[in-house]
Amino acid sequence: MKIGRASRGEREAIRRGVEKYGASLKGVLQGRELLVAKNGRQVVSVASRKVLETLKKMRCEPYSAGLAIGELKRGEFKLGLEGAYLIAGRAKKYVKVNEKGEQLVLYGRDVFINSVVEQGEIEKEDPCIILNLRGEPLALGRVRMGNIFVENLQDRGMYLRKGE
Asked: Where are the alpha helices (DSSP H) in 88-130?
């Protein structure tokens, strides 16, 4: 099968990657499994146990299953935007921006200090989730602490800009 349960080592890498954002997958994974696609890119997904049972019964090798939450690269887990949705309510490393900041982030711009309305337990160089006023993840960033408070690394607007 090209997709299967995450190994112990993969689960450990995923745990460490999520903890960088001050969160845990424990409550999120209730009744679900971590899956890893084994076809070049190691895309990490979350799926129900029923989905896993169905995959085992299939006579083909699916490319993916479940909700893709990130990717394993060289043994390190890189959280994706959908993964940010799963942990946003639990993450301690976040920055919440006003409406103007939300617009700029969705256009691929960085977060300036005057757009920040709330911040979590962050320090310089920390990865963080950039949230709008409703607590919805807009982007993943890296804290800079200067005039550019958070560098935008990956945002939801990229889907629109790239036309994907």
From this structure: 99-106
Other Cβ atoms less than 10 A from the Cβ of 162: the count is 7
Query: Which of the following CATH numbers is that of domain 3-87: 3.40.50.1580, 3.10.450.220, 3.40.50.300, 3.30.530.20?
Result: 3.10.450.220
Taking the C-alpha atoms of residue 36 and residue 32, their distance in angstroms, rounded to an integer, is: 13
Fold of the domain built from segment(s) 94-162: 2.30.130
Encode pLDDT of 25-58 as tens digits: 888 888 899 999 887 789 999 999 888 788 778 8
Asked whether residue 151 carries a pLDDT value surpassing 90, the answer given is: yes
Phi, psi angles (nearest 5°) of residue 22: 70, 35
* Spatial contact of 106 and 157, defined as CB atoms under 8 Å apart: yes
Q: How far is CA 147 from CA 91, 115, 140, in A?
A: 24, 11, 18
pTM of the model: 0.89
